[in-house]
Design goal:
This protein is an alpha+beta fold. The chain is built from eleven helices and 17 strands. Strands 10-17-12-16-13-14-15 form a seven-stranded mixed sheet, with helices on both faces. A six-stranded mixed sheet has the order 1-7-8-9-11-4, with helices on both faces. A four-stranded mixed sheet has the order 2-3-5-6, sandwiched between helices. Helix 2 packs parallel to helix 3, helix 5 packs across helix 6 and helix 7 packs across helix 9. It is globular and about 70 Å long. It starts with 5 loop residues before the first strand and ends with a helix. 52% of the residues are buried.
């Protein structure tokens, strides 16, 4: 990491705890100490054991403002509507779900940003996905979008919309529209409230930030995300907003977003399901005075791209650490593949397998299920070369040279201790090429996951 680059990281280490300081302007924030572990949140979900103790101290970004409202669209006694405003001239880039069943907000926002990369507003509701919700959903979107455009004196294609929640249910567009005038009379809020407003079955709001320099000018990046279930890489299954005060050309921002997305949101999986509502938006207000970044390869922008990538990976890991009903946070490292894409494909296949996830939930180093998950990718693999091992440094080898590694009494005990850890690392060495190390992140599959999803619509 460049010495001039500061990253607000997510919790790491052996124990599921974090060290982030409290948000500088926490509203309605309660410290997540040991007494709150296991406490049920708004969705009836217990706080993840990997939740950081507090929300990170994200900087406000000049030219970008957030406002929230509690409309009880689905959830009670909490924020459930977020409106973000972008200064004129801000550049925007977005990635959307590749699902063939996209929600109405995805259809609209993709069309709008393709036509105009200088969006001025983003409106997000939590509770209703507004996917496959027919004419009622279309009307709800249009009513809210048009009202926002009217009160902010914007063109329609300057307004982006996102939704998250239950598929088949439209939000109350009229209720949202009635609330917007008062919402924009309020003072802007901090990132904690913004992150909270877009959660559904998340057990905690997610934020990450970084500071860096472009040609000696200090640059800030602040970002929020939501995601806990229906998480599988196909863009990724979540909502995220990454904001910065840097000056970037629209195509440059798109390049950076696409590139960093592959090693972040497209490298997580919780349940193997891709949502109808995936969206990650990057917005650069251009408030800082420096030479505009015309390409991601510009030498003067190198530390910015590094910082941006770190923020994206930070948020992605936080989503994986908040998997519905999570008991273990799992990292799969695949090395020496013939290509980075192949390595990631194998890692994601392992972490998407219910059988693998269940075995790991019960501390079972079942290499047979891991081999199965690798094999179903249909990637050609020389099994005589493959090594499968558990541990941060591959200390516990369970498969090599095409067969299981016999364990003695001591090694069995050590392996059992490793498997019982809340943070588990699985290493796959393909010995088939020199592609860079690929990391993917996910979690185990528990009874609590079944309960959460069984009661989701109740």
């Amino acid at each position: 990491m460049n010495e001039r680059q500061q990253i607000v990281e997510e919790p790491r280490g052996e124990e599921p705890r974090g060290e982030e300081p409290r948000d500088e302007e926490p509203r309605n924030e309660k410290p997540r100490d040991e007494e709150t572990r296991g406490e049920k949140t708004h969705g009836g979900v217990a706080l993840s054991p990997f939740a950081p103790p507090t929300f990170p101290p994200l900087k406000q970004i000049v030219g970008i403002e957030a406002r929230v409202a509690a409309l009880a669209l689905r959830y009670r006694q909490r924020y459930d509507l977020l409106a973000l405003s972008f200064a004129k001239g801000s550049t925007c880039a977005a990635l959307f779900t590749r699902s063939s069943a996209p929600a109405a907000p995805i259809v609209w926002s993709r069309q709008a940003i393709n036509a105009n990369p200088y969006a001025r507003a983003l409106l997000i509701n939590a509770g209703q996905a507004n996917a496959m919700s027919g004419t009622k959903g279309e009307r709800a979107l249009k009513v809210a979008r048009d009202k926002l455009a009217e009160i902010r004196a914007l063109e329609r294609n300057e307004v982006l919309i996102a939704s998250t929640g239950v598929i088949g249910e439209p939000p109350d567009g009229d209720k949202i529209a009635r609330a917007l005038p008062e919402l924009f009379r309020q003072e802007p809020c901090g990132w904690l409230d913004a992150a909270t407003a877009i959660t559904t079955t998340d057990s905690y709001p997610k934020g990450a930030g970084a500071s860096c320099y472009i040609e000696g000018t200090p640059i800030e990046i602040s970002a929020i995300a939501k995601g806990s279930g229906m998480i599988a890489p196909n863009m990724a299954t979540m909502l995220a907003v990454v904001a910065t005060d840097a000056k970037l050309e629209p195509e440059t921002l798109r390049e950076i977003l696409r590139e960093t997305n592959e090693s972040s949101f497209n490298s997580i999986t919780i349940d193997g399901d891709t949502s109808t509502n995936d969206m990650v938006l990057a917005v650069a207000s251009g408030a800082k005075e420096h030479r505009r970044v015309a390409s991601r390869k510009d030498a003067h922008a190198r530390t910015f791209v590094e910082a941006f990538a770190n923020v994206m990976q930070n948020l992605a890991r936080q989503i994986a650490m908040d998997g519905e009903g999570i008991g273990k946070f799992i990292t799969v490292r695949t090395r020496n593949a013939s290509s980075r894409e192949l390595a990631r494909k194998i890692g994601l296949s392992i972490l998407s397998s219910p059988l693998v996830k269940i075995a790991l939930a019960y501390d079972d180093p079942n290499w047979g299920r891991i081999v199965m998950a690798m094999g179903k990718t249909e990637v050609e693999i020389d099994w005589q070369k493959v090594v499968i091992a558990f541990g941060e440094n591959s200390e516990h080898v369970v498969f090599a040279k095409g067969e299981p590694i016999e364990q003695n009494e001591r090694s069995e005990k050590e392996l059992a201790k490793e498997m019982a850890k809340p943070r588990l690392t699985l290493n796959i060495d393909l010995r088939a090429g020199d592609a860079p190390l690929s990391e993917v992140w996910g979690c185990d599959l528990t009874h609590e996951n079944l309960r959460i999803n069984g009661e989701y619509r109740s």
